[in-house]
Amino acid sequence: MSTLATAPVAEGAPAAGRPKPKSQGGGFGRYLLVRFLLIFPTIFILVTLVFFLMRTTGDPITAAQGGRLGPEALAALREAAGYDRPLFIQYFEYLGQVATFNFGSTLTTNRPVIDVLTTYGPATFELVLYSLIVAFAVGIPLGRLAAYHRDKPQDAVFRVLAILWYAVPIFFAGLLLKLIFAVWLKWLPVAGRASVNAELQMQLVPNKTSFYTIDALMTGDPAVLGDVLAHAVLPAIALGLLTGGIFLRLVRTNVIGTLATDYVDAARSRGVAESRLLRKHAYRPALIPIVTVIGLQIALLLSGAVLTETTFEWKGLGFILAEFLESRDFVAVQGIVVLLAVIVALTNFVVDIIAAFIDPRVRY
Amino acid sequence: MTAASVTPVRRRPLRDRLPIVHQLRQSMGLQRGMLVAGLVMVAVFILCSIVAPLIAPYGFAQRKDESGAFGTQQPPSPEHVFGTTVGGYDVFSRVIWGTQTAILVIVIAVLLSIFIGVALGLYSGYFGGWLDRVLVVVCDAIYAFPSLLLAIVLSIVISAGQSNLWGGVLAAAGSITVVFIPQYFRVIRAETVRIKAEAFVESAKVLGASNARIVFKHVFRNATRTLPLIITLNSSEAILTLAALGFLGFGIEPTAAAEWGYDLFKAQSDVTSGIWWTAFFPGAAIVFTVLGITLVGESLNDLADPRLRGRRRVAQAAGEVAATSVVPGGTLTAGPGGLDGLEDGQSFDEHGIEVRR
What we know:
The complex is a heterodimer.
Chain A: H1 2-5, H2 12-17, H3 19-25, H4 27-56, H5 60-65, H6 71-81, H7 87-99, H8 113-148, H9 153-167, H10 170-184, H11 196-203, H12 212-219, H13 222-259, H14 262-269, H15 274-312, H16 317-326, H17 330-358
Helix pairs in contact in A: 4-7, 4-17, 8-9, 8-13, 8-15, 8-17, 9-13, 10-13, 10-15, 11-13, 12-13, 13-15, 14-15, 15-16, 15-17, 16-17
Chain B: H1 14-17, H2 19-26, H3 29-50, H4 52-55, E1 64-65, E2 68-69, H5 91-127, H6 129-143, H7 147-159, H8 165-196, H9 199-206, H10 211-223, H11 227-250, H12 260-272, H13 277-304, H14 318-321, H15 331-334
Antiparallel strand pairs in B: 1-2
Helix pairs in contact in B: 3-5, 3-13, 5-6, 5-8, 5-11, 5-13, 6-8, 7-8, 7-11, 8-10, 8-11, 9-10, 11-12, 11-13, 12-13
């Protein structure tokens, strides 16, 4: 193509042009490094923000015990915990703690926050995973259908559905699902991660993982696995539909976009069948942006998980966060929030790397 | 100046320049249906909040009238069309009064975040420098963070347990504001950087216009075209965040104001025992309001996106197409805290650093 036009200078061109593609090829390593280094300022800013915000209200002990204890007892407690020292000293101490993965201890239960993560983290991870499965299963096929029937009644229905899923707050969707399928129809359990019997059986598993699905598999009892999965259905749907609606819209727009590209036109002019065009030519490239968007969805999913877990008493990080909020244990809240910030930053990093790996246009 | 020396510039008629009216005329078919439905729903919502004292049979904190106490968890009846809550309030009255709280929060949150976000974005985009870098990094950090968690932290900070009407409303609005500022900041900053390079800004500079004049007269006026879209988006987001805070128990006490999320919070245990009306009606009110606002926002976005607009009317607005920022894939793709596509995303990476492509 354009090489024909520049043929006369072709001798010198490769030599002059070579360094540039090479630097782009090495761009992946550089991109990786830059993205990795960017994790730290992100976490640092959030830790700083959360720390100073939380302290503008006063120290956590006054917040938790205020009114219940006399001023002397309060002062003694504050001194013991070091909250009477200058704020900046406390701040640097806290930074040091976070740098060594010490997120403090909860006031009410006096457990290290990192323990809270290992106990409740798997539940949240499982919930997010299940809801992502729901989101993919719902969003991608429907989005494809909507694009295929663009501007027809099916398309209208799917689009309105996607907007509706967004407009229904997760906890309201959860309450409705619970009311219909658990209370009225009695098809599925109302709340929790497993029934008492199943939990007892899973307690006996030698190397417990706290991932109930894995634990249930290890009991070797299909009834336990069924019980665990039945408990996951409603929360996964409540959380998954929101993301599913987003995927639906994204797939729709992207498929419409790729269907209008030159290479699809070219294929069409070669006589490729319309259904094959959609399946082979337009569909796959349209999926790439989804990978990029998942990074943004992680933050949304975690916000959603807090609400879903509260609605279904799903004992994950969000559930325990809500409990600490209720008991005004702001040390624990701060710890969990900072911890989640670290998780979000790390996940975003991984997703960005995967996206860059799949789609070279992301690297620069 | 004589009339002859001025080339007459034909301005488009007023009806084409008004934000919503123009889009309404431009729309067609399904898109028009969605836009009209959304506008009607928003109108109903606003109307409800204005005439709430006339529609609501009881006060939002009223538990008894002359014929005695309402009773708790009463099913819907002629006296209480939506039944009564576990606390003995009339559900219908609280749903109606809730519109006022919602509007209050939307207005405060959106105004505050526009004001701060636009100011920071203009400064950052126009002057650049180290403050720009710092602001970009800070806003990105906030942006990538689960917005609900930030709102929780902020509502602890702002209200710290107090829950009268203004304390609660300000806590909710304030926490939503901080989550939204980065969105306005990013959009306005990106626009400002783009506009700064335009010829008319340069000629203003050559003519000796001050920075303030250039920023407010030339840049700001041209950078605001995406604002209606973000405002609608953020309004629905504000209602959802307010409700989520209420649902987590950070709401406004029932005696201070009616708040739908808080009512849902209190209705949680009702659902398990099959009492549906205490949860259904406040939830439906949230869905109705958010749906209305989102339909308007979605339609505005689709109409601004040449790829999604109905094909027949493209010509009508062709002049504006090229420079319009939209969220690819619709506004929902962006999700809470995500408005990536609103920037001229091709030239900026997620850290606001200019990228050659």
